[in-house]
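Still learning folds. Look over my entry:

…
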Amino acid sequence: MNMKDLQVAVRKYTQPDVTRSTWQLLNTVLPYFLLWGMMVASVIIGLPLWVTMLLIPVTTVFHIRSFIIFHDCCHRSFFKSQAANRFLGTIIGVMTFTAYDAWAGEHLTHHSSVADLSRRGTGDIWTMTVSEYQAASKWKRFLYRAFRNPFILFGLGPIWVFLIFNRMFQPGMSKRERWSIAFTNIAILGVALILSLVIGWQNYLLIKLPLIYLSGVFGIWLFYVQHQFDPTHWYDPEDWDFFTASLHSSSYYKLPKVLQWISGNIGLHHVHHVNARIPNYHLQACLDNTPELQTVKPMTLLDSLKTIRMNLWDEEKQKLVSFGSLRTVGQTT
């Protein structure tokens, strides 16, 4: 099957199903708010703090799934109506500390440039080539190695992304994207003030910050392994093709069913990149019924742990390599 035929084959899965979309709202966003209500109530009636904290991991599950719905709204795939996608996406954006229009703009840029070596840097994980790393100053190498350290990337990354970076205007943003950040920041502050008046600001932070952090760790890990895996492919601009890059530079992360449900099928990332208008609840059916998509080698949970050592793109070997591999061949590090 050529790429044109593949495009035609997957197109039928791009139609949102209002029944399934509504069901996801009922089994994801509704439990999220109910769990928040339970945590608030537990504080008000004076239950021990550990009772409230026990609910945080469960609430995190629905926080993650809510972000997947937000993600679909950004692709205008959750509902047929663009206005409905924006309305729901904006609400979930406040819940997840992510401005709808700003994140959508950055994320769509990521989709349109994935695996193009000449268009790195927007909506992706910072990745240098071996030649770039060798030519870089000691300070830049230090920064890059620090960034790629798992304790920083996955440990501090969620704090930087959701509490700081998502709150700021970025160069080149449109007026709409700036307004979305301003509105989201004001709405977040408003919700925080209301809940702080009800349960106290300390209790609000004890609930909200772990939610943002835990879901952020999970989210950044997913985003990392979706494009940093073996064998992935990066292309020079003259060799880059959207469908080829989508199919071969995005992972098929075959998770246990429970984790697949929590992550809203986003592990089927090669399917998502081939056509981002496919709602999350159609991704599995699209994979099951499209043989070409099944040719991509799945990555297991155990396999994914090995990706932590994949730090640089080696243009000669056409693969991701570790910092250690440079030392073994006598190259400067």
The chain is about 60% helix and 5% strand. The mean pLDDT is 95. The two ends are 43 Å apart (CA to CA). The beta strands are 128-129, 252-253, 298-299, 312-314, 319-321.
